Amino acid sequence: MLMMDLINIIIGMIILFIGVLIGVAFLTLLERKILGYIQIRKGPNKLGFLGVMQPFSDGIKLFSKEQVYLNFSNYYYYYFSPIFSFFISLMIWMLIPYYFNMIMFNLGVLFFLSCTSIGVYLLLLAGWSSNSNYSILGGLRALAQTISYEVSLALIMMSSLFLIMDFNLMKLELYQQNIWFMFLMFPLSMIMFSSMMA
Prior knowledge:
The protein is mainly alpha-helical and 198 residues long. It has helices at residues 2-38, 54-63, 75-92, 108-128, 133-161, 169-174, 181-184, 186-197.
């Protein structure tokens, strides 16, 4: 029975990760199409019907590009920090309270805040490990921006947790069945929306 539960969890995670990757690819396509129509051009429309195959060709192009090896970089940190950052961003998606939720996180909000704050260190590591002054400056700038928006995001999340007095995201969904917290805390939800977009 325990082995079957473990297999179900692994299959659920694989389906979740594949769905997230395909969803992000097509959201990028949607963004490019909207930007194209704003600029009075068609956007990506060559591959497939209305450019539907464009995300897959972008992925093939990304993986078939030539690898560049920087002479003075710290090789392992330089190549593994984006991989770890990508893995951590995928780990956050496990927290979303689906109806087929695989794992019950009692401290899900703390896990979310921990994963987002680890991403800050990996961003700094990616800039530092290239041993280029411009990359370090770009990494520090991105680090400062990430921290500044992350603080407001964490404080707004904590203020909504006072209404449920729990760190479980399933309880957060349960308490919003009658009225959404977005309407109860409308100014805070607009600030949280802008923080998440940034």
